[in-house]
Amino acid sequence: MKITRRTALQGTAGAFALGLSGFNFDFTKAEAQAPNVKRGGTLNFAISAEAPHYDPHGSDTYATLHFAAPFYSTLLRFNLSKFPQVEGDLAESWTVAPDLMTYTFKLHPGVKFADGKELTSEDVKATYDRMRNPPQGVVSTRQPTFADIGEIQTPDATTVVFKMKAVNAAMLEHFASPWNVIYSAKDLADNPAGPRTKINGTGPFVFVEHVKGSHVAGKKNDNYFKKGMPYLDGFKGIFTLQAAAMLNAVQGGQVLGEFRGISPAERDRLVQAMGDKIRIEEDSWTLNLLVCFNTTKKPFDDVRVRKALLMAIDRWGGSVGLSKISTLRAVGGVLRPGSPYATPEAELVKLPGFSKDIKASREEAKKLLKEAGQENLKFVLWNRNLAMPYTPAGVFLVDQWRQIGVEVEHKQSDTGPYLATMNAGNHDVAIDFSNLFMDDSSLALSKYLSLSRAPENRSRSTDPELDKLYDDHIRERDPEKRKALIRAFEKRVFEQGYQQPILWWHRIVPTHKTLMGWKMSPSHNLGQQLEDVWINT
Amino acid sequence: MLRYTINRVLLAIPTLFGVAVLVFFLLRVVPGDIVEIKLRGDGGSVTQETIELERKRLGLDRPLAVQFGEWMVNMAKFDFGTSMWTERPVITEIAIRLELSLQVAIMATIIAVLLAIPMGTMAALFRDTWIDYLVRVLTIGGLSIPSFWFGMLIMLALLSFFNWLPPITFTPIYVDPIANLQQLIWPALAVGYRYCAVVARMIRSSLLEVLNEDYIRTARAKGVYERLVISRHALRNALLPAITVIGLEFTFLIGGLVVTEQVFNLNGIGQLFVQSVSRNDFTLIQGMVMLIAAFYVFVNLAIDLLYAVFDPRIRYGK
Asked: How would you class A409 by CB atoms within 10 Å of its CB: exposed for 0-12, middle for 13-18, buried for 19 or more?
């Protein structure tokens, strides 16, 4: 039985009485072998960005995960065949106390780091301590996620117990986050910032080299604790910073895939050129672009201005056009459209910025601007200089706002300065992104919390009412009540107009048909360990 | 000649010092902060205290004069410091890419020179004939078509006609010459075409001018074979301005192929330059600017020395 937050929430009284438990297929005893698997070979795949460093704890970019995930293990992970169910990775089994206040994990015995040292519960403790209380000089973007952990106990070498300060109904999924890779306690003691520049994990592959600007290479970990895995002898993640170079490489067979996602036009080019040699998988994406207003700057401290600008955006019409030329597609609220807690379309259209009567909506927007004394509003839209899909999104917004008489200068910059500018609060209005690895509301909603609680809130808003709604929802175990709280939260966010999704992304992944075992999911952050991938030559 | 060479080498020192002063202080007035980008540019929640600590660790909190002095002293010992972004020695970061960039530049120069000299000479000798027109069309094409676009055409042609593409990662020529040439011949061709066009047009116009000189008429009047008139008297003199262009183009190729490198997915100096500028990686930018400046200084010296070889009238130091 695999336990997820949903099954936990919906569990029977009997299950609670016994304590919730999960277990994992024991890979250490049984040789994993998919039918007709061919072993060996080196997988070349494209990574469209280069990792700024090697430490997933302190990163939010997929470039770090696609680079580092094959070298590491996590406590739990998502089962991509049954997403969003979780399964064990380093954890052989686990139990969750009925009150969701204690999580106990039993680790696989005999797991070894690449340097030969055996993994123990102390390594798990040191890793999670680093994420929730990063030492001086260490950046942890995971700190808020684990704020509810009170204490981590290690009663023996293969048991680790997490005692919670407060209930977080999605905690099990958070333990499956791909960012929470386990480091060696000794390495962290020697240098807490060490994982930024050095790799030593327990994953299916061992680090070979990182040629800056060119590629990262790994070779099969012969001591990997899942017997018979990985199937590949090694991999090479090749940095292809230009889309045309990446497409050429896929078409020419120099790489067998690009696992983040490509645009519809790029998909069409590959299909036309490669015919039945290319496999195209598509799914909605746990990723959206948001428009966010810096509420600490005038006139964006005025809710009327923010609301007017949101109401001028024709998302429904934009979706039709943008989905043909970019990875943007679905109209949705704070949760991925189609996911269990997402707001249905019939309710969504009643919220500011989502009306299908765009003419009336824009008239209302003009009125609001007039009331606020901002009829001749001019500002700079800060954007990332990635062609897909940031540039079309920026052009789209400039045009939408022009239609209510607002003049916008569209400024784009490289990822580093773009994020640094927003994080320092130096922007007026920006196109931001929400990069999730699952649909859980505790993750998706956290971006909208007050700045003091959510540094990734680039609208820099402070709203105790929203914070309370969030806290209430995260502790709520009744699914219907929880859903109602999410709706209230969403309504409040959009009524205040701090930030709002423009459109949700659509994921299109091209792989050669000789590439087997790689699994598609709604998140490009998942499934990159590559342990069960093989090449059918 | 030796004295002249020594003088020129010594003159390079103040030149490079001037470059160092300019690059160091100009970088400090450009907006942007490496520490902000490094720690906050990845979505991280970082306290101001951590930012200040990192700034201190990188030595950015010290007075500019102290930072500059330390950099100069270290540079005199050929220590260019550590990249503020990657934390690896600047020399290592550059060395990874320089081999590739240098090889592309050398190959492109060879292609350009081998094609440009006969093309420019033929065009001048057969002025206003179909040969001249053909060379002019080809060279105008070379000047008009951006190298990166020609590179994209090459890649598409390889894919469409041969369903083949060159290797995507760099293999040094001493490890596997075939894999190395398979990868680098195409960018060298793409860049070499434009380079060849520039040099060929320079040789053509220069040769046309020289062919009207009195000494050429004298040589012909003396009954010297036409082939000797062209090769020994005309072409040798006509090559002098072309040598200057070849040298400057060669140096430009070391760091100026940003877009072409992207098209061919090459891990070269051009891309590193762009990345380091976008990250405000001062130490790396400084190291690369000094490298390119040194290339310019020494390639110019080599050109001046070559002048003496081609034109016996030029004798430096006398």
From this structure: exposed
C-alpha to C-alpha distance for B304 and B297, rounded to whole angstroms:
11
> Shortest CA distance to A167 belongs to which of A89, A249, A90, A103?
A103
Contacts with B37 from chain A: Cβ below 8 Å = 416-417, 419-420
| Closest residue to B45, CB basis, from A213, A255, A455 | A455
- pLDDT of A7 reads 45
Residue B273 near residue B258 (C-beta atoms within 8 A): yes
Cβ within 8 Å, pair B278-A241: no
Residue A3 near residue A22 (C-beta atoms within 8 A): yes
> How confident is the model at residue B184, as a pLDDT?
95
- Comma-separated ranges of CATH 1.10.3720.10 domains in chain B: 92-278
Nearest neighbour of A61 by CB, restricted to B42, B50, B168 = B42
User: CA nearest A166: which of A144, A146, A148, A178?
Assistant: A148
Confidence of residue B45 (pLDDT cuts 50, 70, 90): low
Q: What is the mean pLDDT of chain A?
A: 90
Q: Determine the pLDDT at residue A414.
A: 80
Closest residue in B to A44 (Cα–Cα): B168
Q: What is the pLDDT of residues B84-97, one digit of tens each?
A: 888 889 999 999 89
Q: What is the per-residue pLDDT for A30?
A: 46
Segment A429-448, tens digit of pLDDT: 999 999 888 998 988 999 99
Record: contact B168-A240, CB cut-off 8 A: yes
SS3 content of chain A, % helix, strand, coil (to 5): 35, 25, 45
Express each pLDDT in B104-136 by its tens digit.
999 999 999 999 999 999 999 999 999 999 999
What's residue A24's pLDDT? 52
Domains of chain A: residue spans and CATH: 5-25+37-205+514-535 (3.90.76.10), 284-506 (3.10.105.10)
- Residue A9 has a pLDDT of 44
* Residues 6 or more apart whose Cβ sits within 8 Å of residue A500: A290, A291, A292, A310, A353, A493, A494
Q: Which residue has the higher pLDDT, A104 or B28?
A: A104
Listed as ranges, residues in chain A with pLDDT below 70 are 1-35
Residue A5: what pLDDT? Answer: 43
Q: Looking at the domain B92-278, which fold is it?
A: MetI-like fold (1.10.3720)
CB B205 within 8 A of CB B198: no
What's the token pair of residue B8?
Answer: 């020129």
Q: How many CB atoms lie within 10 A of CB A151?
A: 11
Q: Could you tell me if B159 and A273 are in contact, meaning their C-beta atoms sit under 8 angstroms apart?
A: yes
pLDDT value, residue A15: 36
B179 CB within 8 Å of a chain A CB: no
In three-state secondary structure terms, B206 is helix
Residue type (1 letter), A479: P
Using an 8 Å CB-CB cutoff, list chain B residues near A451: none
Least Cα distance to A416 among B134, B109, B39, B248 occurs for: B39
Q: Where are the alpha helices (DSSP H) in A60-138?
A: 62-68, 121-132
Joined tokens for residue B32 = 């942007």
Q: Angle of helix B90-125 relative to helix B282-310, nearest 10 degrees? A: 30
Angle A477-A478-A482 from CA coordinates, rounded to 5°: 85
Report how far residue A316's alpha carbon sits from residue A332's, in angstroms, rounded to the nearest whole number.
10
